[in-house]
Amino acid sequence: MPKHILVAHDLSVEADVAVRRAAQLAAEHDARVSLLHVIEQPLGAPLLAKARQSAVAALQDSARSAGLTDYQPLVAEGRPASVIAATAQELQADLLVTGTHRQALVERFDGTTLEQILRCSRVPALLVTDSQLRPYRRALSALDFSVGACHAWRSACAWLAPGGELLALHAYDAGNDPARLRERLDEQRQLLEQLMHDESQQVGGPLPQLECLVSSMGVREALDHSLADWQPQLLVLGSRGRGALQQALLGSTARYYLRRPPCDLLVSA
């Protein structure tokens, strides 16, 4: 079961929303929370001490507003992506949570920063965009048999609220033979169901309601269609695919949705 949530906090209003989501998840799953702020600009000793004090005070205010009483405030210096990834590994965090504007393309915790973190960390990263903070009861997962996608799927199983639903979507190129389209899609569905069964054995605790869908559309087209049709609260992606070509494809898909999140987004390497 997940036990430790790390929130990367840039002292923005959006990061406060991420803290509130972390507090809600921690209460649901009896997990502890650490709040981390990284001072990026090099400062002299007097200014650094003042910056650290201000950051700790801001983290305490954010935690208080979120109703957090048991948490660990952390302040470090360096490059944010490197420090966040190293801290997540050191703390053995089960989830990294960040916040960002829904419409903004350039934020301190934008897609580029998260990609940098995911390149050197296997800790699933949750990008929070929804300020309503309803418990996660419906999630859509792009599942392509890759390690990252499977890791993200298992993480979604662990963090969904009790009684939640998780739809696994697999986009499959069935070729140009319409006579065999249904047969090939059925074969892929059987493989997907077996994969979900195998992966579910590694999830500690109760499972959400599991569903799967195999589509002959392209990855992004299938995801957009399912997002519109299913209206999930959480989109779940692996940051890379299986082979070189599919790594580039799914990597570009993850980057696309990190910059244009249609809902909260969970990404894992």
UniProtKB/TrEMBL annotation:
InterPro entries, A to Z: Rossmann-like_a/b/a_fold (IPR014729), Universal_stress_UspA (IPR006015), UspA (IPR006016)
Domain called UspA: residue spans: 1-128, 136-267
Any matching Pfam family: Usp
Top-rank lineage group of the source organism: Bacteria
Keyword Cytoplasm tagged: yes
Keyword terms, alphabetized: Cytoplasm
Keyword Zinc-finger on entry: no
Main location: cytoplasm
Subunit structure: Homodimer.
Protein name per Swiss-Prot or TrEMBL: Universal stress protein
Naturally occurring in which organism (per UniProt): Pseudomonas citronellolis
